[in-house]
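Sequence only, no structure available. Ideas?
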Amino acid sequence: MSDTKNKTTQSSAFDKKLNDFFIMIAGLWQFQWQFVKQIFMPPYEVEQVRKHMDELGIKTLPIVSVTGFIIGLVITMQMHPVMVRFGAEAFLPGAVGISIVRELAPVITALIFAGRVSSGIGAELGSMRVTEQIDAMEVSGVNPFKYLVATRVFACTFILPILTVYVIFIAFLGAYIAVVLVQNMTYQYFIDSVIKSVTFGDAIPGVLKTFVFGFIVGIVGSYKGYTATNGTEGVGKAATTAVVVSSLMILIFDMVLVKITLWLWPTI
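Reply:
I predicted one. Tokens follow.
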């Protein structure tokens, strides 16, 4: 009898979580559609977008710098024994360059950005929601969705590609230092090998998909914060779930975008 009761309780909990998941997906879709409608309606808060881009970019720069450098250093040191085993040591810079440009730099930068920015947006907007600041803006005639949400989503969408390009160059610096440590290779040979191996067909898809990742980070963080409830507990939950959901969606969309990229550019 007790086992049956426990199974029933577990089943009910699973059903509730599944139901909450589909409710969140539906709400996120409606929230995104509202964003699409709002961006074409004046006034256009260009100054707020610039402000958020500066703030998000500068505050995220230190952690992505360290991350990018370590990515280049570690992936090079890990790949070196493998390349030596197959007698392809000379191809090490090119292989590392392609790995960084096509996948490592865009995805890892997006995940770091999600952890740093999505939680911050969720907590900030969640605090404004539970303290009724957003309601006060609506009463005073200000459109809070355009002022608070649209500007942050725009900023995230356009600042992440810039950070990704920066991380690529920092990762190359780390890769070069690793190459110097594991084998005596000149700087000119390293640069020539990378330039010869990495083409625009590698760089363009890798950078372009970060626009999608930036949009995901902005829209998920804004949705979780804008719809937060239950006081300070709801604010903490909004910040936490914003990171989890945005990171998961980045990985899912990366899988889809890689497939689309290979379909559009089969020769890359």
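Residues 45-264 form one domain.
Hope that gets you unstuck.
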